[in-house]
Amino acid sequence: MALHAADNTSNLSATPTDLEDKFYRQALYFYFAGDYGAALRQISLNRQRKGIDSDRSQLFEAGLQVAIGLHEQATQTLIRFEQNQASTTTHTSKTTSSASPDELLLIALLNLSEQQIEQGDTETAKRTLARISTVLPAYVEQYHVLSQLAYWPDTPPLSAQVQQSTTNTLAPANSAAAYIALNQALLHMQQQEYAKAQPLLMELKTQQWQPPEVNFWQRLFNPFAQPDIFDDNDELRPEVKDALLQQQAINDYAKLLLAQLYVANQQYDLAYTELADFPEQSPYAESALFLFAYSAQQQQQYDMSFNLLSLLQQQYPYSNLAWQAALLTAKQVSEQQSLAQGLTLYQQAEQWYLQKIADIDEFAHTVSTINNVTDLASQAPKPHSQALTQQSDALALINTTTFNTDSPWLKKALNDPQLATDYHTLTSLDLLYDNVQKQHINNQWLKDTLVLNTQRQAKVIEQQKQLAYQDIIKSLNTQAQRIAEQIEQAQAQQDGKIFANQRQQQWLNRINDSQKTLEKLAGQRNTDDEQLRLDRIKGVLHWQLQSTFPQRLWQHKQSLKQLSEQLTQLELQASRFSDLSTNPRLLSDFEQRQQQSQTDINIIGDNISQLRDKTDREIRGKISIFAQQQQYTLQQLLLTTRHQMANVLEQMSHADNGLSPIAPTAPTDDTAAKGVR
After folding, report:
1. Domains (ranges, CATH) in the chain?
2. Which pLDDT tens digit goes with each residue over 111-136?
3. Spatial CA neighbour of 58 closest among 71, 44, 69, 68
4. 401-404 and 161-162: which strand pairing?
5. Residue from 93, 82, 78 nearest 11 by CA
C-alpha cells in the first residue's frame, strides 16, 4: 500500500523500464521498512551495477541523505540532479505525477537549508537558499522564514522569483506565514513603527492554523512531517503535539510583543490587561512575568508588582530579568514603604549579585580546568526519538538528541544555538571516535588472524611436502583403469569369472590344472569318473559366479565411481598445494589491505581528535565570553545597586538632619521594557 502511494507521487524521468522500476521499488521497500541505510545502499548498487540513475532515484537518494543528516552528500546529489535537468529538457515525465521536478527540487533545497539552520550552519544554508531560482506559491512562506532565519538579523535578499503573489498578508494561512508576520512586526517595532506592528500582532495572538497536506516527497525529506494526526492508540502523534505547542507559542509571543509595544507607548494599562491571562506554562512566561510586574508597578498596583517581582526572582534566579527585578523591588519599597526597608532590599540584592559573580567565576574556572567539557552536559533523547531510532541509528544520532545538565550557567549558555551546535558536534565526534576505535580493534583482530593464517599456511606447506601426490595419483589411476577394464569386459562377455575373488580364482586355477592332468592321463587309463566329478565341481562354481554377477558388477561400478571422486579430490588438493607452494604469499594482498585500512583508521582518528580539540577550544572560548558577559551584567547591576544604596543613605541622612530629600536616581526602566525582546 505504501509502495503504491509512493509510486503515485512522481515519475520524473522518461517512462521507466521494468528493470529500473523494480530496483527503484526495492529501495522504496527498505525506506518504508525503516532501514534508511539499506535504501541508500540499494540506490548506490542500482547506479553502479545496473546503470540506473534516474531523476527520481537521485531525488530519493537526496531525501534519504537529508533525513539522516548527510548534508554534504545530499548537496552533491542535488547538484547532479540540477545538471541532469539542465542538460535534458525533453525527458520530463508526462504521467500522472503530482509533483514536477522543479517542485521536488524546491522541496529538497528548502528542507536541506532547514536542517543546516537547525545545526547552526547558516553560511551553508545561505548558499543552499541562493540556488533556489523560482518559488511556488505553496512554499513562499517556508522560503521567507528560512531566509529570515539564515540572514537574521540582516535583511534576506529573497532573490528567488515567486510565480504568484500572495494576498491578505494580515491573515496568515499557516505557521510559516505567521513567522513571517512575527518577524515583520519585530522589524516595525525596531523602527518604532508601532502603528504597522500592532494590527499584525492583534491578528497573530488569536490566529489558528490547519496543518497542511504532506505528500510523499515532503515526508521523505522531513520525517517529522506526518499527515496523520492520531496514532494506532487514537492519541495525538508527538509531531502533532509539537505543532500545537508551536502554534500556541506563536500566539503567546504575539501577545508578549503586543504588551511590549504598549509599554513602549507608555500604555501600561493595556499591557497589564494583555498579560493578565498569559499562560503560565508558556516558554515566554519569564519575559511576560517581568513585563506584567513592570506594568503593574507603573499602574501603582504595588502589592501585585512586589509579589510578581519576588516570584520572578524565586523561579528564575539566573535570569537577567530576575536580576533587574531585584532592583525594581528595592526601588519600589524605598519609594512606597520606607527607606530602611528599601536599604535592606538593596543590601540583599548586593549580596545576591556578589554571590552570582562568585558562582559564574567558579563556573568559568571549572570549564577552563575540566578535561572534557561534555562531562558538564549529557545527551538525552527528544520525546519522539524512540520511533526514529527504530528507523535509523544515524538519524537518531544526528537529529534526536538534546542536552541535560545540572549546571544552571551551562543551561543558560546553551540557549545560544551556536554553542549548542558545538556541543552536539563534540558529542557526535566522541561517538565517531568510539566507532573508529571499534574499527581499530576489528582491524587488529584481522591482523592477528592473518598472522595465524600465515603460520598455518607455512605449516600446511611443510606437511604437504611429505606426500608424494604424483605416485598416489598414478596408483589410483592404475586401479581405476583396471576396474574399468574389468567392467567393460564383464559387460561384453557376461562372464562371472571376471569378478571371481581370490578363493574362487584359486578354485578356478585348480580346476584348470586338474583338467590338464586328466587330459594327459586320458591315453593311459579310463578317466571318466574323475572327469565327471570335475565337471560337477566346475558347474557348481560357475553357478555361484553367475548368480552373483549382477551384484558384483554394481559393486565394481560403485568402486570405480568412488575411486574417480577420490582421484578428482586428490588432483584438486595437489593443484592447490602446487599453487600454495609456488606462491606462498597468497595472503599478502589481504595484509596490504589490512595495513592500508589501519593507515586510514589512524588518519581518521587523528582528524577526529584534531577536530575535537578545535571544537573543544571553541566551546571553552564561547563559554568564557559568556561568563565575561554575565560578569559584566552583574557588575553593572552591582554598581547600580550601590549607587542606589548611596542615594538611600543620603536621603536617610537628610531626613535625620531635617533637610529636604534628594530625588533618587531611577534604575534603567528602559532596560526592563527592552530586555524581553
Report:
1. 1-154 (1.25.40.10)
2. 778 877 877 778 888 888 888 888 87
3. 44
4. unpaired
5. 93
